Amino acid sequence: MRRRLRLLTHWLSQPSASLRQQVARGAIWLAAGDCATALLGLVKLTVIARLLTPEHFGLFGIALLLSGWLDFVTELGFRDALIQRQGDVAPYMDTVWTAQLIRGTAVAALVLACSPLVAWYYANPDVALGMQLIAVDPLLRSLTNPATIYLRKRLDLMRDVRWRLIGPSAGLVSGIVLALVLRNAWALFLSLLIATTAQVIASYAIYPYRPRLSFDRSRARDLIAFGQRLFWLRLIGALNWYVDGVVVSKMLGLAAVAHYQMAVRLASLPGTIIGAPFHGVLFPTFAKLQTLRHRREALAQALAITLCLTLPIAVCLTLLSPFVVDLLLGPAWESMAGPLRVLSWLAVTQPLGHVLNAFFMATGRVELDVRVATMRALILVTAIYPVLLAFGIIGVAWVAMVAALFAMFYQLVLAAGSLHTRPLSLLRCLHGGILASVPLLLAWPFAHTASMPSAIAVSTLSGGLSIVIAVSMAWRVFATHRLEFTK
After folding, report:
1. Does pTM top 0.85 for this prediction?
2. Which of 181, 256, 368, 436 has the fewest CB atoms within 10 Å, measured from its CB?
């Protein structure tokens, strides 16, 4: 066992000329880093949820809505443009840093200017103060070292993970301490700013580059040409991510929006742990693959691995949502079990969406994702208000879930069309995810009726067995696939 661990450690830390091995190593590092980030955030939520009330989280969520929307829509896309670009990107660094500083300042100013209006809309003066604190966050993040893009571009993902873990670690410690001391929503706001500050400092410690204020218009135009193709995707995507929170927060109040947003966050954890690292490693990988056959086989393989890992998570959240909520957050959050059960299949749709989005971006077909986002936004905007009036927060969850499922299938159809193949040919290894879900299905009747200690033991055992099966099946798909990634 020790020998295998040493071999694994050596393999993970050594460079490789093989793109296939770089992809495997990069995916493992990104998955480990994003998993650690998600776990740090989950521990923070688990502790603070027992120290603060849902109303405190609701205030924090409302203050984040406008800031998050502006930050999402105004994203320049320079990092993605530099990842896709071949050759030396060093001449672009100062322009990128200057542009992101200008953007961060503009977003902060807009959030500050809108804070009184948003506070009036919600009839809550605390919202204005919360937004004034939140406005500092985009300004701080704009100071991040742009040269960290080299770590992702060169698939040096071990170092990329190291600096990205600093912020969540600082946020965990500061969040718990502040919640113990303050016992109010301001602990959430201040811990966010502390985490961002630590992350910015870490970006300069991990890569020895010191940017300066310099703006080259020709280089900026060159990068903006790529970002313009992503603008409509972000603008429409902002509706998909924020319209439900805006409607719920206005119609149902602070506690309801906290329950809904927390359900979305828990259901979206697999998107962070699995989908985000896959996107990070597959975007540059797809960009390097030149033939249609290699892209088709690589996408099918990535989707198969994703399904192996995510199907059992969705089954777990569907069957055990009341147990998961009580275990993680406590009895004050029990009313979010219903929305979490409905939204549980985001655990599948979001990671698959990350993989397909990486493919569209790498192949220059961002307009296909715009069409997908438009369809999803139309479903949300037209249905969410009447369904909320009729069925409340559960109705909103159903609308969001149906929109996500339709978008995923449409995304798959468009990807298959661009590769001249059938959609079902891209979906392989469903049996792996189904097999990994069997222990959870068998454990559900007992966990549903047993006492809490027994339910915890059975759920932990079945969950661990499902993880082993899912990882084994995913590795089998990767290791036995005939395709060798080629440059």
Report:
1. no
2. 181
